């Protein structure tokens, strides 16, 4: 009798688990990427004098106070002390914007303010200035829990659903969904790194691989490239929907921007 | 402008070994990487760093292309007298940044 190749059974098991509904980690089992870090990277993030993300926070602080655009206004001119006015803001973005008719992320909100109120040109995505301002604002929410924005704003619901669908959709030449790695295989290893649960608690974050600070969209783009899938243009609605879903999924976890990750 | 973060204990006992941390923002472009059109990006790195304690050099190092961006240095020195610690980074394209921090020795 011919024996079936060994791999056959394994392939069946994989097919069966892939077909099953991918369960979200229950609240008690949610882990931020921080908890999966090694002790040296944790120490780097914890010490504000060693966390390279703090260099961008300093940049952002300077930009916050500097007048820009033909209106000659600085962020501080309207919003005052960021420690007061921006506290908790990063914990509730992406948020629904009436003008756009859809959710926008923090970077888009900053650029909206720049164009409409400061009458200055929008900052380019991933530019040092935009990342600096974003991380400075996000820093003001450090250790505050991520809010359940969808519960407070019904209008976000369809976009949350769109984000969830994106998260669970198989894509790319590897034909994998985000959920397959980040729901099913977190805590396992992909090359040298531990797979996280994909909770966006520390963005913009300093990635040692990037050797610089980057946004959540840059990180999502990285994952898509890893799947050998088509990436979206920076600022695309798909990224914002996905960010909304990820933030909703991470509700209750503390903001830790600027995080340090391998 | 490159930002730098310096950590020096504000107070120390005479004869105590103190830890000093210096982090600076810099791309540390190696000179070996091509850009998207295949042209090599010119080298742009910090080449040297030194720390002066009341004018006396207590730590110095050279840096090379293999160092990561935003170099972070930690070193120790003996707290001898109250005064100023000066930090100097120099590098390609006339890069030069100076920072200082006070230390009180009792």
Strand content of chain A: 5-15%
Report helical residue fraction of chain B.
Answer: under 10%
Low-confidence stretches of chain A: 7-21
What is the tally of beta strands of chain B?
8
The coarse overall form of chain B would be elongated
User: Major β-sheet of chain A, in short?
Assistant: 3 strands, mixed
Strand order of the largest sheet of chain B: 2-8-7-4-5
Report on this model:
The complex is a heterodimer of chains A (262) and B (106). With 262 residues, chain A is mainly α. Chain A contains 12 helices and 7 strands. Chain A folds into 2 domains: 29-47 and 144-261, Cytochrome Bc1 Complex, Chain D, domain 2 (Orthogonal Bundle), CATH 1.10.760.10; 53-139, Cytochrome Bc1 Complex, Chain D, domain 2. Chain A has helices spanning 7-19, 39-46, 53-65, 75-79, 82-85, 106-118, 128-139, 149-152, 157-168, 178-184, 216-226, 237-249; strands at residues 95-97, 102-104, 189-190, 193-194, 205-207, 212-214, 260-261. In chain A, α9 (157-168) crosses α12. The longest helix of chain A has 13 residues, at 7-19. Chain A is globular, with a radius of gyration of 20 Å. Chain A starts with 6 loop residues before the first helix and ends with a strand. Chain B is mainly β. Chain B has a single domain, classed as Sandwich (Immunoglobulin-like), CATH 2.60.40. Chain B contains no helices and 8 strands. Chain B has a 5-stranded mixed beta sheet, with no helix packed on it. In chain B, strands 1-3-6 form a 3-stranded antiparallel beta sheet, with no helix packed on it. The radius of gyration of chain B is 16 Å and the shape is elongated. Chain A binds chain B through residues 47-50, 52, 54-55, 58-59, 208, 211-212, and chain B through 3-7, 21, 23-25, 27-28, 68-70, 72.
């Amino acid at each position: 009798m011919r024996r079936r190749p060994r791999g056959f059974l394994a392939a069946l098991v994989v097919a069966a688990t892939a077909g099953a509904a991918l369960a979200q980690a229950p609240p008690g089992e949610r882990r931020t990427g921080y908890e999966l870090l090694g002790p040296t990277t944790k120490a780097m993030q914890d010490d504000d004098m060693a966390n390279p993300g703090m260099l961008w926070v300093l940049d952002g602080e300077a930009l916050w106070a500097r007048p820009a655009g033909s209106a000659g206004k600085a962020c501080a001119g309207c919003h005052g002390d960021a420690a007061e006015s921006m506290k908790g803001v990063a914990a509730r973005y992406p948020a629904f914007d009436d003008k756009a008719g859809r959710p926008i992320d923090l970077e888009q909100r900053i650029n909206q303010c720049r164009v409409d109120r400061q009458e200055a040109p929008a900052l380019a995505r991933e530019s040092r200035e935009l990342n600096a301002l974003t991380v400075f604002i996000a820093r003001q929410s450090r250790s505050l829990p991520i809010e359940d924005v969808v519960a407070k704003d019904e209008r976000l619901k369809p976009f949350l659903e769109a984000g969830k669908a994106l998260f669970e959709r198989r894509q790319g030449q590897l034909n994998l969904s985000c959920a397959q790695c980040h729901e099913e295989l977190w805590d396992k290893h992909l090359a040298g790194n531990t797979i996280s649960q994909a909770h966006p608690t520390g963005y913009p974050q300093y990635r040692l691989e990037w050797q610089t600070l980057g946004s959540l969209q840059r990180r999502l783009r990285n994952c898509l490239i890893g799947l050998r899938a088509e990436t979206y243009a920076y600022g695309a609605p798909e990224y914002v929907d996905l960010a909304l879903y990820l933030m909703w999924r991470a509700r209750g976890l503390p903001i830790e921007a600027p995080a340090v990750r391998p | 402008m490159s930002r730098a973060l310096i950590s020096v204990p504000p107070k120390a006992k005479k004869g105590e070994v103190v830890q000093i941390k210096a982090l600076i923002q810099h791309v540390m472009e190696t000179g070996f990487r091509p850009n998207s059109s295949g042209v090599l990006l010119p080298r742009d790195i910090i080449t040297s760093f030194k720390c002066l304690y009341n004018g006396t050099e207590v730590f110095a190092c050279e840096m090379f292309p293999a160092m990561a961006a935003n170099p972070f240095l930690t070193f120790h020195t003996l707290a001898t007298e109250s005064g100023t610690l000066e930090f100097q980074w120099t590098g390609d394209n006339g890069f030069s940044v100076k920072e200082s921090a006070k230390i009180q020795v009792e």
